[in-house]
Amino acid sequence: MSKNFKLAVVGGDGIGPEVTAEALKVLDAVSATQGITFDKTEFDLGAARWHKTGDTLPDEELEAIRGHDAILLGAIGDPTVPSGVLERGLLLKLRFTLDHYVNLRPSKIYPSVGSPLANPGEVDFVVVREGTEGPYVGNGGALRVGTPAEIATEVSVNTAYGVERVVRDAFARAQARPRRKLTLVHKNNVLVHAGHLWKRTVDAVATEFPEVAVDYLHVDAATIFLVTDPARFDVIVTDNLFGDILTDLAAAITGGIGLAASANINPDRSVPSMFEPVHGSAPDIAGQQKADPTAAILSAALLCEHLGLVGAARAIEAAVTADIEERTGAPRTTAEIGDAITKRAAG
Amino acid sequence: MSKNFKLAVVGGDGIGPEVTAEALKVLDAVSATQGITFDKTEFDLGAARWHKTGDTLPDEELEAIRGHDAILLGAIGDPTVPSGVLERGLLLKLRFTLDHYVNLRPSKIYPSVGSPLANPGEVDFVVVREGTEGPYVGNGGALRVGTPAEIATEVSVNTAYGVERVVRDAFARAQARPRRKLTLVHKNNVLVHAGHLWKRTVDAVATEFPEVAVDYLHVDAATIFLVTDPARFDVIVTDNLFGDILTDLAAAITGGIGLAASANINPDRSVPSMFEPVHGSAPDIAGQQKADPTAAILSAALLCEHLGLVGAARAIEAAVTADIEERTGAPRTTAEIGDAITKRAAG
Ligand SMILES: CC(C)[C@H](C(=O)O)[C@@H](O)C(=O)O
Ligand SMILES: CC(C)[C@H](C(=O)O)[C@@H](O)C(=O)O
Predict the structure, then answer these.
(1) Average pLDDT in the B41-66 region?
(2) Average pLDDT over residues B26-51
(3) How far, in Å, are A126, A302, A304, B329 from residue A310 at the CA level?
(4) Is ligand 2 within 6 A of the CB of residue B244?
(5) A320 neighbors A337 (Cβ within 8 angstroms)
(6) Is B249 within 8 Å of A252 when comparing Cβ atoms?
(7) Beta carbons of A193 and B142 less than 8 Å apart
(8) B188: which chain A residues are within 8 Å (Cβ-Cβ)?
(9) Cα gap B118→B227, rounded to integer Å
């Protein structure tokens, strides 16, 4: 039995295309062994395209992408483009239009990879970041721009509909993990309206998951625990902005942004979910084969898992783990790392 | 020549009164040696008062506090009070009404104090957190609360007026420090309206401070550098919410929240500024003499500095540094630490 999946590929900016190329190598190698094929369509989106045509994500391309089973994305953003144009017009447009409300970001410490923490302990948690609401909605504006009377607002929008679905997803994930612990992170002592909606929702959904232990932390306190006791976390559920901040910090303490993968999931299988490294486009090292493609490769594993290709997902993860365990610190090119992992994944 | 200062004291909740008592001990000892006196008025505000009377900060008491030269605050917040009531009704009411727009939070690693980081390097920076705008303005609301159709918003308000004054203050501080470096932290690739106001303001004010090197980081990237290379920072200027998050993280990497002091400054001397530890009320250890009063004591040093009592400020800092250097790890009570620092400060 062979199965064919339609994969939309958006390499994007900076190191995006380089790391994506390696993730595709690994995907191809694994799919060959698993009787799967990926039909790839590349979409030329990002800074170069914007400079050429002014487009960020035209409707026809969005519709074309929608016809795929999944999206593999490299990285978006370039210093030659005004900040926000590509982020809002391309990356966030994909997340919002395709209603990727579960932004999943696992963090784990590989014993062989150094952590900047002296005693990190055994770290293995996942952040479930809400992906379609909060301060990311683009619901603000500015008046009298460039004058001393300028006023700029940003509105965080939070709905019971949006919060409940992601909270329920996080509880289900916590329930399926051995430790069964869920920590809500917010700032409900200051952002009382949004914060209380989140808190009440967690308290309500908790009654459906009596085996999951529930905890609450203010976002500032959560950053403290991430450096003093990261092993305490199992599943963290949080809003879009807090999730953005916590997952970069989580990546840093678990050996760096070169290893941090993410999934932007819409559990409705008729809509493609999107898989991307947590890291950005790193324009300073772009095109130099200096980027670590591991995060992109692990994102491809999350992609397989989401498509139900559990064998492929485990094969990629095992290949990455084996590669990481043998890292000596000697520098390798992006392609060398990709090749090494590909070889293991195919073997 | 003796000088008398009127000091408003708000011990507050949890460990607040305990740590404040030690800060006052030190202040009294130092002032005796410097020919200064502090006339203290205690204000009974916080959880107990709220339970008794329902008051958080009545107008007459706010006016009475306004008549003082400075405010020394312990900590606010208690689990028996709905989250936000005391924070918004007391702590933030003081910061906002007294227009404490410079929330100053120094971070430095004392060589004798452990950091959770394996190789922190020489860390000595200060966060200038905006204190009167951003998502803290309380400018949101909720509709259809408790129903599946609930919507909750939080509005971040940012003005050229508010941003420029704190940015100018931060540049002046950077200019006066040996490294002369200023890093703006925001999220201008997503929060484009507020973020661009901040960025344009920093770029404009930078022309007045040509000797200060300017840098920009997204808040998520800033958390990474705080754990991988905190020594790179000199002065960080940022908004109210990002400043809240970054300063807890900064405290964590520099040996913990027990040492982190803060000043809520209104540079207009006719209005009292407010000095408080960064830590919260820690109700779990309240009344047990387990809290470290060092952050409160260092906040008293910031208070002296603000009042122009530079000798007193240096004496307190020196006493704290000497105490910290001789810490053996053997537990001491709150009062024992306070007494030891008092003795050194008076000596
Ligand atoms: C590039 C940026 C818009 C994005 C975000 O803020 O979500 C990134 O930081 C991330 O975490 O995926
Ligand atoms: C208690 C809380 C309202 C406060 C804040 O968020 O500003 C605290 O976390 C701080 O940093 O001073």
Answers:
(1) 98
(2) 96
(3) 18, 9, 7, 49
(4) yes
(5) no
(6) no
(7) yes
(8) 83-84
(9) 10
Class of domain B134-254: alpha beta
Write out the catalytic residue numbers of B: 136, 187, 220, 244, 248
> What is the bridge-based pairing of β-strands A151-159 and B151-159?
antiparallel
Burial of A199 (0-12, 13-18, 19+ CB in 10 A): middle
Q: Which CATH superfamily is domain B1-114+255-347 in?
A: Isopropylmalate Dehydrogenase (3.40.718.10)
- Tens digit of each residue's pLDDT (9 = 90 or more) over B193-231: 999 999 999 999 999 999 999 999 999 999 999 999 999
Topology of domain A1-112+256-347, CATH? Isopropylmalate Dehydrogenase (3.40.718)
Alpha-carbon distance of B144 to B267, in angstroms, equals 42
Tens-digit pLDDT profile for residues A266-319 = 999 999 999 999 999 999 999 999 999 999 999 999 999 999 999 999 999 999
**In angstroms, how far apart are the furthest CA atoms of chain B?**
67
Helix, strand, or coil here: A322?
A: helix
β-sheet bridge partners, residue B155: A155
Distance CA A40, CA A69 (A): 10
Helix (H, G, I), strand (E, B) or coil at A235: strand
Contacts of B192 in chain A (CB under 8 A): 83-84, 88, 138
Domain segments of chain B: what residues? 1-114+255-347, 134-254
Count of other CB atoms within 10 angstroms of residue A3: 14
**Ligand 1: distance of its center to the CA of A241 in Å?**
9
- Do B1-114+255-347 and B134-254 fold alike per CATH? no
Nearest CA to ligand 1 atom 1: A87
Parallel, antiparallel or unpaired: strands A213-218 and A235-238? unpaired
Closest atom, ligand 1, to C-alpha of B189:
3
Note if A248 is an active site residue: yes
Q: Which CATH superfamily is domain A115-123+157-254 in?
A: Response regulator (3.40.50.2300)
Q: Among candidates B167, B198, B188, B181, which has minimal Cα distance to B124?
A: B181
**B260 touches A at CB < 8 Å:** no
Q: Which atom of ligand 2 is nearest to the CA of B75?
A: 1
Residues of A whose CB is below 8 A from B154: 135, 155-156, 158, 191, 193-194
Beta bridge partners, B264, equal B103, B274
* Residue B220 Cβ contacting ligand 1 at under 6 Å: yes
Structure tokens at B251: 């405290």
Question: Which stretches of chain B are DSSP H helices?
Answer: 16-34, 47-53, 59-66, 85-86, 92-97, 160-176, 192-206, 219-228, 240-253, 294-306, 310-325, 334-346
Residues 163-222 of B with CB under 8 A from A: 164, 187-197, 199-200, 219-221
Residues B266-302 have pLDDT tens digits of 999 999 999 999 999 999 999 999 999 999 999 999 9
- Rounded Cα distance between A217 and A236, Å, is 10
Q: Which two tokens stand for residue B252?
A: 């964590």
Q: Are strands A3-12 and A70-75 parallel, antiparallel or unpaired?
A: parallel
Q: Where are the alpha helices (DSSP H) in B80-185?
A: 85-86, 92-97, 160-176
Q: Best of A78, A83, A96 to disrupt the B interface by mutation (most B CBs within 10 Å)?
A: A83
